[in-house]
């Protein structure tokens, strides 16, 4: 797998509360590792939460001897949750901080995915497919049939998430295992991208940019062109 990543503050925010990790090389028992996180909280708390989360996930995976990817991810997420939660309780300036997180690793032709919150992972092959499910209020409303997906994009409560890392002493992540083929493209991103660009437009940009590096830069530029209301983090990886 070959991957490339970029984060951008966007046009409206005073700081970047996103944080990512992108390694094409082995990390512990994983052959590669991609992570994107979108922090939340008061002044400097969100960026601290996302950074703590990602660094502690990487630290845990680096030293984990388990052979099952889901077990490795689960233990890493539990460890990161403990660090962020305890930091928020210890320091008043970090009270209430938390973060979304989406992560994956590719083993042979199976992609192992973990997510909490509304940062997403997509698989782009013949078409674009969202693999993860948002842990958000509007996603629950869509599933109940109360609103449509198009209405969810502009709903006034679209930024309310129902699950985040570091908010409570326990956290529950979703896990996915999906088969991929050579030349498939994996996209991890924060909602600063998906709130600004429709999925079909994301697919078009990725497929017509010529390289994942150009595609990442084009996606960030387009999100900013469309308003850049939030921090934007994009990781693209091509299966080889």
Describe what this molecule looks like in 3D.
The chain has 240 residues and is α+β, with helices and mostly antiparallel strands. The chain has a single domain (2-238), classed as 4-Layer Sandwich (Phosphatase 2c, domain 1), CATH 3.60.40.10. The protein has helices at residues 45-63, 69-90, 137-144, 149-153, 191-194, 199-208, 212-225; strands at residues 2-8, 18-23, 33-40, 98-107, 110-116, 120-124, 128-130, 174-179, 185-189, 232-238. Strands 1-10-9-6-7 form a 5-stranded antiparallel sheet. A 5-stranded antiparallel sheet has the order 2-3-4-5-8, covered by helices on one side. A hairpin with a 2-residue loop joins strand 4 (98-107) and strand 5 (110-116). Helix 1 runs antiparallel to helix 2 and helix 6 (199-208) packs antiparallel against helix 7. 45% of the residues are buried. The mean pLDDT is 94.
Descriptive keywords:
240 residues, alpha+beta, Phosphatase 2c, domain 1, five-stranded antiparallel sheet, 7 helices, 10 strands, 34% helix
CATH class: Alpha Beta
Q: What sort of overall outline do the alpha carbons produce when their principal axes are compared?
A: globular
> What is the CATH third-level topology name?
Phosphatase 2c, domain 1
For the biggest β-sheet, the strand order reads 1-10-9-6-7
In the CATH hierarchy, what is the superfamily?
Answer: PPM-type phosphatase domain
Nearest-integer average pLDDT:
94
Which secondary-structure class do the elements indicate? alpha+beta
CATH architectural type: 4-Layer Sandwich
Share in helix: 25-40%
User: What about the largest sheet?
Assistant: 5 strands, antiparallel
Give the termini separation.
5 Å
Give Rg in angstroms: 17 Å
Q: Per DSSP, what share of the residues sits in E-state strands of 2 or more residues?
A: 25-35%
Domain module tally: 1
Strand runs, count: 10
Order of helices and strands: EEEHHEEEEHHEEHHHE
> Count the helices. How many?
7
Contiguous low-pLDDT stretches (5 residues minimum) are none
């Amino acid at each position: 797998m070959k991957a490339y990543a970029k984060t951008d503050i966007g046009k409206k925010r005073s700081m970047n509360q996103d944080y990512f990790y992108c390694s094409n090389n082995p990390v512990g028992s994983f052959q590669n590792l991609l992570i994107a996180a979108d922090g939340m909280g008061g002044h400097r708390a969100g960026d601290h939460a996302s950074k703590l989360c990602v660094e502690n996930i990487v630290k845990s995976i680096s030293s984990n001897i388990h052979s099952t990817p889901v077990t490795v991810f689960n233990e890493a997420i539990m460890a990161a949750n403990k660090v962020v939660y305890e930091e928020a309780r210890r320091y008043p300036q970090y009270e209430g901080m938390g973060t979304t997180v989406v992560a994956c690793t590719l083993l042979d032709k199976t992609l192992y995915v973990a997510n909490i919150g509304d940062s997403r992972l997509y698989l782009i092959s013949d078409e674009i497919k969202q693999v993860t499910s948002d842990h958000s209020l509007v996603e629950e409303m869509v599933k109940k049939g109360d609103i449509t997906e198009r209405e969810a994009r502009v709903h006034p409560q679209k930024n309310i998430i129902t699950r985040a890392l570091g908010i409570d002493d326990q956290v529950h992540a979703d896990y996915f295992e999906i088969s991929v083929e050579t030349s498939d493209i994996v996209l991890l991103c924060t909602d600063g991208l998906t709130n600004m660009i429709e999925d079909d437009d994301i697919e078009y940009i990725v497929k017509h940019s010529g390289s994942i590096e150009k595609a990442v830069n084009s996606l960030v530029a387009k999100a900013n062109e469309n308003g850049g209301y939030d921090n934007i983090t994009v990781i693209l990886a091509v299966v080889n």
